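Let us work through a complete example step by step.
Step 1: write down the sequence.
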Amino acid sequence: MMKATLKYIALFVYFTAGLFLLGLNIKVVFGFVHIGEFYLPYEEIMRNLFKSIIAGSAITLAAIVFNLIDKFKKCRKQPSDPE
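Step 2: predict the structure and record it as tokens.
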């Protein structure tokens, strides 16, 4: 049980950090394209952090739900063949 919990925590951290960095990269590139200089205010960083936390938790929740569905399908008794 503890090993599975650590896997889900690692999954959450991985996707949250990855999406956060991806969002920052996109904002910096668009800033260079539109403004022509590096401009990344604190509010944009925090907004990106909250969005990445929400997306990371949604991905982790989906993984948990799909794993529970697989467990319940595997635990269901297989029907016997009528002969």
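Step 3: interpret the result. The helical segments are 2-34, 42-75.
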